[in-house]
Amino acid sequence: MRVALDVPPGTAMPNLADAYAPELIGAAGAFSVATYRHSILPMRLFEAARIAIAAINGCTVCRAFRTADHSVLLGIGKDEGIKGTVPDEGFYRAVLEGDLSGLDDRERIAVRYVQAMSLDPQGLARDDALWAELKSQLSDAEIVDLTYCAAGWIGFGRAAHVLGYDQMCALPAREAASV
User: Fold this and answer.
1) Are the C-beta atoms of residues 132 and 73 closer than 8 Å to each other?
2) Per residue in 112-150, pLDDT tens?
3) 81 near 67, Cβ under 8 Å?
4) How far lies 83's CA from each of 47, 88, 114, in Å?
């Protein structure tokens, strides 16, 4: 960790706000939780986009996080949040490695969109072909939802990685997190 943080043993996701900028980090945390609790996106599309950004950001906790299993750590109950088919580990490995062949058309364009948003936002704003393809696959409501989810993942994942905070998190295994 690049800033000091006293973390009690066994803490899955330490709270940086305990030591620093509680109002800012608290607001960031609330925004992050809102994406997992209120997004209208189906689970596979949400996770494909999220994990693609995690690959770009390099955040180890983001790469290991599985919404279906770990969102309980954010205070989100099993009956709340993102719905739909839960991806398997092969899905995550493929997207992390840049292999989008197992994704459907909607998932693939969502990944391409968030990758462009992450790496070339100015080019994305001018890419009429990508926008046309995106709008042919996602509703305006889904595009806005995806954009704001991606904004959180990009910003907060980068902050966690740059500060080394991602190295402090110890997510439970999928089976243990689901209990």
Assistant:
1) no
2) 999 999 999 999 999 999 999 999 999 999 999 999 999
3) yes
4) 11, 15, 20
